[in-house]
Amino acid sequence: MSIEEVVMVTTEADSAAVAAIRTHHAQLAARVAELTDALVAAVAENSDTAAARADAARFLRDELLPHARAEEATLYPAAARDDAARLLVESMLAEHHVIGDLVDRIENDPSPFAAAAAGYALRVMFDAHLANENDRILPVVAADPTVSLAAVTEGMHELLGDHDLRSAQPGGCSGHRCACGEA
Fold first, then answer.
1. Name one Pfam family in it (predicted).
2. In whole angstroms, what is the distance from residue 12 CA to residue 179 CA?
3. Which of 13, 17, 116, 158 is the most exposed place for a label (fewest CB within 10 A)?
């Protein structure tokens, strides 16, 4: 399934959550590409890589790794309830460890060339990782009538970026804080 295909969801709020997560994933991927391209370019031009490494490491530690931890705490347990998705979730968790190791190399490897190579590897891995999340994990959770993806992700900047699910619902919620869309 491609990112452009339809995902079956159980509620309008879950549909908004899927859209918000996919949008945030696209934003993360674009920023990872921008930062890793800058690091590779600095090495290719034989210029000082310190600023490019620091920018990449800061974003990866402050944005990408917290996003991964948020997925591990919310999205992945919800997906792992489905027997068919359990092995994929385990694989996604292992990929998070590899991504963390690559972040360490970008930040700490004494060789600028090795740091740039780690940055490129992280970018390629992250793109593949996002394809699995968007096309395999999100549809499993969104289609499960016993799980509210909107409730699981509500208020989580790490998963949604700047997308507030309550504002995506007509009328918002009355009398309670959730992303159900109840007016």
1. Hemerythrin
2. 10
3. 158
Global pTM reads 0.82
Residue 7 forms part of a structural domain = no
Taking phi first (over 0 means left), then psi (-120 to 50 degrees means alpha), and beta for anything else, what does residue 11 get?
A: beta
Distance between start and end Cα atoms, the chain: 34
Q: How many domains does the chain have?
A: 1
How many whole angstroms separate alpha carbon 17 and alpha carbon 117? 34
In terms of residue numbers, what domain contains 42? 12-168
Q: What residues contact 83, with CB distance under 8 A and at least 6 apart?
A: none
For residues 132 and 93, the answer to whether their CB atoms sit within 8 Å is: no
The closest alpha carbon to 94, from 121, 129, 127, 63, belongs to 129
Residues in the chain: 183
The answer to whether residue 145 is domain-embedded is yes
Write out the H or E segment, with its range, that includes residue 182.
Answer: none
Lowest-confidence region among 71-75, 81-85, 152-156, 172-176: 172-176
- Inside any domain, residue 177: no
- Which one, of 36, 78, 64, 84, lies nearest residue 129 by Cα? 64
Encode pLDDT of 136-154 as tens digits.
999 999 889 898 988 888 8
Asked whether residue 1 is assigned to any structural domain, the reply reads no
